Amino acid sequence: MDDKQKKKVRFSVSYFGFMLLLAWLFQMLIFEPMVLRIREVPYSEFLRQLEAGEVAQVTLGESRLIYTCCSDGERQPPPVYNVVRVEDPTLIDRLVAAGVEFSAEEPASGMGTQLLGWLIPLLPLAIIWYALFHRMQQGGMNVMSIGKSKAREIAGEMTGVKFKDVGGLEEVEVELREIIEFLKDPERFTRIGAKLPKGVLLVGPPGTGKTLLARATAGEAGVPFFSISGSDFVEMFVGVGAARVRDLFEQAKAKAPCIVFIDEIDAIGQSRASAISVGTNDEREQTLNQLLAEMDGFEANNGVVIMAATNRPEVLDKALLRPGRFDRQIQVVLPTEAGRLQILKIHTAKVPLAPDVSLDRLAQVTAGFSGADLANIVNEAALLAVRQGREQVTMEDFDLAIERVVAGLQRRMALKPELKRRVAYHEGGHALVAQLLPSTDPVHKVSIIPTAKGALGYTMQMPEEDTYLLSKRELQEQLAVMLGGRAAEWLVFGERSTGAANDLERASDIARRMVTEFGMSETLGPVRYTTDAGMGYLGYAATMRQDVSPETARLIDTETRRIVEEAEALAEQTLREREEVLHRIAEVLITKESITGDQIRQIVEQGATA
Ligand code: ADP
Ligand code: MG
Ligand code: ZN
Q1: pLDDT of residue 334
Q2: Residue of 264, 427, 477, 489 with catalytic role
Q3: Is the CB of residue 555 below 6 angstroms from any atom belonging to ligand 1?
Q4: Regarding beta strands 304-310 and 328-331, do their DSSP bridges make them parallel or antiparallel, or are they unpaired?
Q5: What is the pLDDT of residue 187?
Q6: I need a surface site. Which of 29, 337, 425, 435 has the fewest CB within 10 A?
Q7: Is the shortest distance between the CB of 257 and ligand 1 below 6 Å?
């Protein structure tokens, strides 16, 4: 017996125990009181009630009579009485005369009642149990009401979304054109014997429009769109997910040509080896197996195109990516500046904009933002305008909205003057270093308004273009900007604070990568010392190579440290040269709590002439 079987047996045993408990509870709480509610009364009392016309229904037993009275209210069920039968030949006549409904069934009593009390609740439970057990053994291949009823809600949808609603993904759209042509007229393809990929996997960071793109593909082709999300499958009962997959494909096949879209496929398609084993393990695996079986089971070109989306392709089970399954991957990347402009245009199409709004500039300052972020910004800006009773959305609304999205919602929290001074110099230090060093991005805005995410302040830089490549010099200057806050604190207060912990973490990380990945250390040379531990979208993940000698490891540490120290020295020197400007910036920050990049540039220039 392997582990899995053992688990199933254990599962069914505990299930059985659970049912017994339920049955017992039923017996105790519902059935017993019901039996007890039957009141024992003398025969004379029965006759009195019969005469008075209070009796509603009588059941004649061999030795007993059970009868109910007309209930005197809606609230309670009619009381039930139990009478020992007396030899009374006139009983039937009396009953007829009183117009009472009567029958001569043998009512359950004694042991019989007890037994019924146990059997009634056990019966449906036993049926459920049997069904569950059965389906587990079959690997979830049989039809069960739980999966079925949910699955009925899955209906094809005409999305009506078009490619014009998707911005900045032209290249991806071109790749999808072929599929749209196929969906519009599958026979054209089948006649020639052309085969299309069965499954298309959209891969990309969250919010880049994968779901939107899938809907637009269906919309462009004018075919129904069946969608489920991997996270829907996180359900309690084993086999439900598999049943839903089967239902989904059944209905899709009936509606072909159409698109089946599985969103967040990583939730079910996680590699079986890497999956964290929580209780849902079996469930996920079964769902995945069912999905694979469905994909293998139908003919290519039967008019159903399967699309899926994930932002974690690295965790997907290899079996999903095999030929005949999701054999075509399409990368959906973060939008470029032109793409961002398009997306902003799409989302502001119905928003009245003030004349000062420049979407070009917005697109420029939002490098690294996803389509969803941009949609969010437009919405936030519109909300701000509405809140202030304005008819048009201004550039200021957009600037505020961007800040909110970048730094979390602003929270008005008064800083103690001493702390505020410190934060002002810290952020001022970042900003001034960024402004003074030649190859860094210009400062967009500095704020010392605490954010909801816990930062005491922030400095926003505005990239002039999307960066794809950084020189060593540029990296060093970026490091200096990161350490500028700490350097300013040191310069002004002569002591360090915890405020720079995050800066140090980022700086150390970059410095280490300069040494181990980019070959930027003369001492260690152009050798890569790390291996990918799965390069995720959600973050950089690399580990030190196993075969790095202890001496080299020590050297890496020394070199990393040297790079960070040099960057800090550069920051300190930069600030020292223009200390008067640092004080001016800090002053503005302390009184106004924020300062724009233009204001900083002005102060820097004034300082030079003064
Ligand atoms: P994903 O599935 O990649 O996480 P979504 O498709 O769910 O992203 O995007 C969420 C929302 O963000 C969309 O409904 C849309 O409003 C907006 N959005 C994202 N990307 C784009 C884009 N390229 N063009 C237009 N809107 C976009
Ligand atoms: Mg999505
Ligand atoms: Zn900082």
Answers
A1: 82
A2: 427
A3: no
A4: unpaired
A5: 83
A6: 29
A7: no
Q: Which protein residues have their CB within 5 A of the ion that is ligand 3?
A: 485, 503
Q: Can you give the pLDDT at residue 441?
A: 86
Domains of the chain with CATH codes: 3-31+111-145 (no CATH), 34-107 (3.30.720.210), 152-331 (3.40.50.300), 337-407 (1.10.8.60), 417-609 (1.20.58.760)
Nearest alpha carbon, ligand 1 atom 25: 166
The pLDDT value recorded for residue 411 is: 47
| Ligand 1 proximity of 371 Cβ (cutoff 6 Å) | yes
Instruction: Identify whether the C-beta of residue 330 lies closer than 8 Å to the C-beta of residue 176.
Output: yes
Q: C-alpha angle with apex 183: 217 to 347, nearest 5 degrees?
A: 15
Report the alpha-carbon distance of residue 102 to residue 92 in Å, rounded: 9
Spacing, Cα 353 to ligand 1 middle (Å)? 22
Task: Measure 68 CA to ligand 2 centroid, in angstroms.
Answer: 62
Shortest-distance ligand to the CA of residue 267: 2
Q: Which pLDDT does position 54 carry in this prediction?
A: 82
> Is the C-beta atom of 210 inside 6 A of ligand 1?
yes
The pLDDT of residue 142 is 39
**Cβ 334 under 6 angstroms from ligand 1:** no
Q: How far is the CA of 313 from the centre of ligand 1 (A)?
A: 18
Instruction: Please give the C-alpha separations between residue 315 and each of 236, 250, 261, 289, 310, in angstroms, as whole numbers.
Output: 23, 28, 19, 16, 10
587 flagged as catalytic: no
pLDDT of residue 132: 67
Q: Are 404 and 366 in contact (CB under 8 A)?
A: no
Q: What are phi and psi of 422, to 5 degrees?
A: -65, -50
Q: How far apart are CA 325 and CA 517, in angstroms?
A: 35
Residues 6 or more apart whose Cβ sits within 8 Å of residue 439: 471, 473, 474, 477
Q: Is 341 in the pocket of ligand 1 (CB under 6 A)?
A: no
Other Cβ atoms less than 10 A from the Cβ of 325: the count is 20
CA of 234 to the centre of ligand 3 (A): 40
Three-class secondary structure of residue 497 per DSSP: coil
Ligand nearest to the CA of 202: 1
> From edge to edge, which strands make up the β-sheet containing 328-331?
225-229, 258-263, 304-310, 199-203, 328-331
Return the pLDDT at 162.
Answer: 93
462 Cα–ligand 3 center, Å: 17
Judged on CB neighbours under 10 Å (0-12, 13-18, 19+), 319 is middle
Residue 477, H or E segment:
helix 472-493
Residue 207 Cβ contacting ligand 1 at under 6 Å: yes
Give residue 235 CA to ligand 2 midpoint distance, Å: 20
Cβ neighbourhood burial of 62 (10 Å; 0-12, 13-18, 19+):
exposed
- Among 210, 212, 369, 379, which residue has the most ligand 1 atoms within 8 Å of its CB, making it the best to mutate? 212
520-556 pLDDT, tens digit each = 988 888 888 887 655 444 345 567 777 888 899 899 9
- pLDDT < 50 positions in the chain: 1-5, 107, 138-153, 236, 275-280, 409-412, 452, 535-539
Query: What is the Cα–Cα distance from 522 to 4, expressed in whole angstroms?
Result: 55
Q: What are phi and psi of 525, to 5 degrees?
A: 75, 180
* Cβ of 346 less than 6 Å from ligand 1: yes
pLDDT reported for residue 537: 40
